[in-house]
Specification:
Length: about 260
């Protein structure tokens, strides 16, 4: 386990758990946390023993957004550099080649939403809510990732009004992949991590890369990206183990084939 005062990283087998640890401040994101998150995810990206990362937090709130209190008595240059540090943290999460799954147990506000949207997908407890109040605090934020997840007009409505969005609506809009009972969140997270870790690492990494790159282009180029990923899997040779596993599971009556 590696730890700072505000971010904890536990490695357990093939799973790493990155945990926001400022419950007394509702896990509000400050400069130290930004720096630590960037460092941790760059480190995890190069750790061959880690196959999946769970992103979580301690306390009833996932993340209450940016810690505006740290900006008191700071000048504009400091605030701008602080914002750049947060973008660097989000980017390190998004660029991690390992699947990153967010587990949210309560309110997700502002920067907390940016962290969540930088992950590959999120599993939310029924107590999760979302709010993006940046304009209400006289600043700008969440204008890019949010619209790419839920659409331009829906993003504007949330940003302009700062209203609280319940988890059921977040699920309908694709901001979270699953909603589970609050008491089941940790167990479901463990099950999801185990399923990802059990799959061939190269296939998972290439699948993540193909989805992300394909999202930025049209279908024809996306197919080319997928074919390149398939060729890499074939060159690796591990696909034969997948065939053997498929045959074994088929004989047991539990397998479905690929496309």
């Amino acid at each position: 386990m590696s730890t700072s005062a505000m971010v904890i990283c536990r490695r357990e087998g093939a799973t790493a758990r990155v945990v926001l640890n400022r419950p007394e401040a509702r896990n509000a994101l400050n400069l130290q946390m930004c720096i630590e998150l960037r460092r941790l995810f760059e480190e995890l990206d190069g750790d061959r023993d880690i196959r999946v990362v769970l992103m979580a937090s301690i306390g009833p709130v996932f993340c209450a957004g940016a810690d505006l209190k740290e900006r008191v008595d700071k000048d504009e240059r400091w605030v701008l550099e602080r914002r750049r540090a947060s973008f660097a943290a989000y980017d390190a999460i998004a660029r991690c080649t390992k699947p990153v799954v967010a587990l949210t147990q309560g309110p997700v506000v502002g920067s907390g939403g940016e962290i969540l949207m930088s992950c590959d997908f999120a599993i939310a407890s029924e107590k999760t809510t979302f709010r993006f109040p940046e304009p209400q605090w006289g600043t700008v934020g969440a204008t890019q990732r949010l619209q790419r997840v839920i659409g331009r007009m829906r993003a504007k409505e949330l940003l302009f009004t700062g209203r609280v969005m319940p988890v059921a609506e977040a699920y309908e809009r694709g901001l979270v992949a699953r909603v589970v009972p609050h008491d089941d969140l940790a167990r479901v997270g463990e099950e999801v991590a185990a399923a990802i870790a059990a799959a061939p690492a190269l296939a998972i990494a290439l699948t993540k890369q193909a989805v992300d790159l394909g999202h930025e282009t049209d279908l024809a180029n996306g197919i080319r990206i997928e074919l390149a990923a398939i060729e890499r899997c074939l060159a690796d040779g591990g696909w034969r183990d997948g065939i053997a596993k498929f045959i074994q599971q088929t004989e047991a009556g539990v397998a479905d084939g690929e496309g």
